């Protein structure tokens, strides 16, 4: 964790989703949201938000191959132990430690670092230029020497920063690499109010951005992870069936965000996050998943715990992002958000014959 923090901003917009339970009228947009799944995801998320006394949370389920959004739930505390729907949270900018995966993939794509390269994280405290980076386990003596694979699995910001420092000469080179991977896309999604997020601000050292201290939206982060699940092909998130035609149309943002070899490497690493790392709460005996956890402390002293993953890991069908925002410590992405993803994944496995 770094001394400077980024502010979580929630912007409430208007999202109109067509009902999946009634027949559409002539000229009416038809949503890809599955009503049964939507209700189930809302119930799962609300139960976990109540458990952690969270301020708000988001859960989005996307079909990996097509980009169709099958469930999108945003819940915000009302102050009386209940939550109200604010689905526009999916398009509201916030800071997320899930950026670690984006940064590691960018580093792998340079060919200058490999998953099994070793980096010394020491006792969990590292001075980087004029700033100090802290690993979450510094009070227990740090992780010491780690492979890059382990650094991602254990959320070692020091290990990841050292790898990025080897891969990139400067901040500009890092940003160019991330931009080529189409991180921060899409800028618009039909039916969802999207906040504008700048990915190349010069206010912070690039290592801050590499670990998540910059703003994106949950739908943008989900789109990137979905591209990893989709063997590198980034597709447009779709809330509605295309107008003017009855045919579904796959919209491709980037046909290959990174080298095929880099995608294979990062996918193996994301499997390890769940089987060996801090994402074990997302592990299920019903379906094998891959993904990444993350927690970040915001400037307003609140915390955001995230998990984004896909399943089945070998041939993904769904990609899911979960975000939990709360006031009090601790906040652990693997424990708080990973548990939500696990329940959603198991529900989808048990109800594989969901109808549109």
Describe the fold and architecture.
The chain is an alpha+beta fold and 356 residues long. The protein contains 9 helices and 14 strands. The protein has a 6-stranded antiparallel sheet with strand order 3-2-1-14-13-12, sandwiched between helices. 53% of the residues are buried.
Q: Which helices and strands, and how do they pair?
A:
Blueprint: H1 35-51, E1 56-63, E2 69-77, E3 83-85, E4 94-95, H2 99-110, E5 118-120, E6 125-128, E7 131-134, E8 145-147, H3 148-153, H4 157-167, H5 171-180, H6 206-210, E9 215-216, H7 218-229, E10 234-235, E11 252-254, H8 260-275, E12 290-297, E13 303-311, E14 318-326, H9 333-350
Helix pairs in contact: 1-9, 2-4, 2-8
Q: How much beta, percentage-wise? A: 15-25%
Q: Quick one: biggest sheet?
A: 6 strands, antiparallel
The stretches of 5 or more residues where confidence is low (pLDDT under 50) are: 1-24
Span of the ends, CA to CA = 42 Å
Give the key terms:
single chain; 356 residues; alpha+beta; six-stranded antiparallel beta sheet; 9 helices; 30% helix; 19% strand; globular
Summarize this entry quickly.
The chain has 356 residues and is α+β, with helices and mostly antiparallel strands.
């Amino acid at each position: 964790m770094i001394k400077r923090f980024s502010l979580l901003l929630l912007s409430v917009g208007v999202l109109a989703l067509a009902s999946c339970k009634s027949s559409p009228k002539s000229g009416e947009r038809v949503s890809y949201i599955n009503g049964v799944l939507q209700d189930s995801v809302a119930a799962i998320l609300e139960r976990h938000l109540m458990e952690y006394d969270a301020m708000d949370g988001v859960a989005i389920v996307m079909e990996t191959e097509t980009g169709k959004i099958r469930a999108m739930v945003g819940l915000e505390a009302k102050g009386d132990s209940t939550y109200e729907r604010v689905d526009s949270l999916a398009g509201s900018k916030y800071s997320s430690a899930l950026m670690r995966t984006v940064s590691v993939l960018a580093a792998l794509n340079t060919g200058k670092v490999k998953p099994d390269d070793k980096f010394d994280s020491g006792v969990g405290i590292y001075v980087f230029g004029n700033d100090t980076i802290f690993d979450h386990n510094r009070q227990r003596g740090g992780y010491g020497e780690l492979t890059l694979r382990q650094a991602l699995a254990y959320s070692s910001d020091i290990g990841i920063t050292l790898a990025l420092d080897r891969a990139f000469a400067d901040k500009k080179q890092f940003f160019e690499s991330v931009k080529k991977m189409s991180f921060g896309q899409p800028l618009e999604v039909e039916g969802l109010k999207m906040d504008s997020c700048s990915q190349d601000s010069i206010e912070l050292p690039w290592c801050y951005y590499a670990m998540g201290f910059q703003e994106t939206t949950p739908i943008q982060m989900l789109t990137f992870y979905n591209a990893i699940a989709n063997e590198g092909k980034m597709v447009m998130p779709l809330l509605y069936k295309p107008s003017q035609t009855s045919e579904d149309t796959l919209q491709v943002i980037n046909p290959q965000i990174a080298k095929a070899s880099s995608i294979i490497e990062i996918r193996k690493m994301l499997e390890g996050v769940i089987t060996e790392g801090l994402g074990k709460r997302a592990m299920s005996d019903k379906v094998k998943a891959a993904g990444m956890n993350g927690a970040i402390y915001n400037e307003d002293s609140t915390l955001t715990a995230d998990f984004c993953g896909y399943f089945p890991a070998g041939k993904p069908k769904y990609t899911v992002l979960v975000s939990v925002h709360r006031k009090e410590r601790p906040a652990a992405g693997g424990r708080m958000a990973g548990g939500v993803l696990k329940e959603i994944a198991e529900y989808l496995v048990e109800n594989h014959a969901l109808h549109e």
